[in-house]
Every structure is written in C-alpha cells, then in structure tokens.
Amino acid sequence: MGICHITQRSYFGVFLRPIVTKIAISVYNDFMLNTPSPDNHSPLRVYVVCDQTATAPIWGYLIREKGLVAILETVVARAMNHALEDIPDLIVIDINAPHAQRIELCKRYRALSSSPILLFLPANNENEILEAYQTGVDECVVKPVSPAIFLAKILAWARRSWAQPMSPLRTGPLKLDPAHRSAVAATGSEVHLTNLEFRLLHLLMSRPGHVFKADEIIQTVWGMEKADLALLKNVVYRLRRKLEEETGETSLIQTRPGGYSFLDQ
Fold first, then answer.
1. Residue 124 and residue 63 share a domain
2. What mean pLDDT value characterizes the chain?
3. What are phi and psi for residue 48, nearest 5 degrees?
4. Of the candidates 173, 230, 223, which has an alpha carbon nearest to the alpha carbon of residue 196?
5. Are 174 and 265 spatial neighbours (Cβ–Cβ below 8 Å)?
6. If DSSP codes are grouped into helix, strand and coil, which group holds residue 196?
7. Scanning 67, 129, 162, 263, which has the fewest C-beta atoms within 10 Å of its C-beta?
8. Shared domain check, 99 and 189
9. Consecutive H or E run containing 150
10. DSSP state at residue 86
11. Are 141 and 179 found together in one domain?
C-alpha cells in the first residue's frame, strides 16, 4: 500500500509539474507586463527564451528584482513563431537544443529586431561561437552560469541600452539614426545594425580620421577594461560587410596600426 502511495505521488508529480510551471510562468508574465515601474518610467524589457522550466522562473525573478520587465517563453517552437510585435530591449536565449536550432532562432530574431541578443551555449566550441557572432548575436556566454553572473550580464547590457546615444550623427556619406539603430546612406538605403555595431560605428564616426586604439574601443563599446581583439575584429568584419553591401563603399572603416578609424572625407 505504501509503495502504491509513493508511486502515485511520483506519477502525479511527473505529469503535474510542467502544468503547474506553465501556469506559474503565465501568471508571472501577466504580472510583469501590468506592473508599473517604481519611478514611473518605462522599464527595460527583457525577452527570455528558456526551455528549462525550472530555470526560466529563476531568470525572470532575478531580472524583475532589478526593476526590469521579464517576458518568459519556455517552448522553443513557439519562440520560433514569435513575431516580436512589441520589440524587447534585450533578447536572452538559453535553450537545450541542437546548435542549428539555436542559430536559426538567432537569425529570426536578428531579422525582426536590432535589440541586443545574449546567447547561452552549453560548451566552449569556437566554431559555434563564431557562427553565433556572424549570425548577429551580440554576446555568447558559455554555461554553466551562476545566477550572479547571469544577472551581471543582464545589467551590463541594460546599462549599454540605457546609454545608447540618442542624437543623430552624420559623417561623410552616412547618417546614424539612433531611433531605428541604423545607418542611412546618401542613396537612402538603410543598414540595420546590432547594438554593438551601432555603438562601434557611432564612436568611429564621432571623430573621422582619428585612430581609436583597440583597448579604447573595447572599453567604450563593450565596457570592458581588457581588450578581446577577436571579438572586436568580428564586429568590425560584420559592420564592414553590411556597409559595403548597402552603400558600395569599401573603405569607410579603415584598419590602422593598433586600431581603427572612420574615413575622413
């Protein structure tokens, strides 16, 4: 009898836990979307795709504790079809899925939004990390990740988003449009940029002809004291390719000894 009782409890636990978790997340999202910010300003919105039902509410709780809005999605298939009608300020992807599926999700969101994408990866695989950056991901984080590190990453990106330059900037054939996070060429063609691409281009265009050293760029754009040259080169490569495809200009961003500059025309 006792064994039957334990088995029954285990049976209901296995089948009810996902249902209870789903209800809890639904209630959580409703609460997040309808709770005003304490300072009456619109809080930064973080869209979290996490298919680990035990982890997703924890990520949401940590984000909310810092006054941000967390919108949780735990079903990858549903995330794939999410149209992002209300564009979030930051997108976090933490899913246990094949790498190809993670990349496909990142591609979809990058096509829909210029918001920063933070991707969690299960292993330190250089090829997978490079592919993610080439897809338009702004930062890759290799798991396992403690709650403290997770929150530190979110807050770092929140600071960068809030510090986004708000005044348009025109240099040579390009005009930077902060409202749409894009660069507009003289022909009228528009180049949509990621958060990092926009910040890098804004820095270079602010002083045409000036050589910004790699350390200075990393500290200003990424907010890190130690330069990651591979990361910088990857963003420069993506930015150059985008500008060349849309404007036909091949030498706007120039490589200089120890750094980069924007063409002085």
1. yes
2. 80
3. -110, 120
4. 223
5. no
6. helix
7. 162
8. no
9. helix 147-162
10. S
11. no
Assess whether 72 and 150 both reside in one domain. yes
Q: Which residue has the tokens 């969101």?
A: 109
Angle in degrees, 0-180, between the axes of helices 195-206 and 229-247, rounded to the nearest 10: 80
Instruction: Assign residue 36 the CATH number of its domain.
Output: 3.40.50.2300
Residues 174 and 119 occupy one common structural domain: no
Report the relative pairing of strands 174-177 and 182-185 from DSSP bridges.
antiparallel
Q: Is the pLDDT of residue 7 over 50?
A: no
In this prediction, residue 240 has a pLDDT band, given cuts at 50, 70 and 90, of very high
Using CA atoms, how far apart are residues 18 and 14, in angstroms rounded to an integer? 8
By three-state DSSP, how is residue 227 classified?
Answer: coil
Render pLDDT for 129-157 as a digit per residue (tens, 0 to 9): 999 988 889 899 999 999 999 999 999 88
Q: Which residue, among 117, 69, 116, has the nearest Cα to 93 in the 3D structure? A: 117
Quote the DSSP letter at residue 187: T
CA trace torsion 208, 213, 217, 218 (10° rounding): 170
Q: Are strands 259-262 and 212-213 parallel, antiparallel or unpaired?
A: antiparallel
**Which H/E stretch holds residue 234?**
helix 229-247
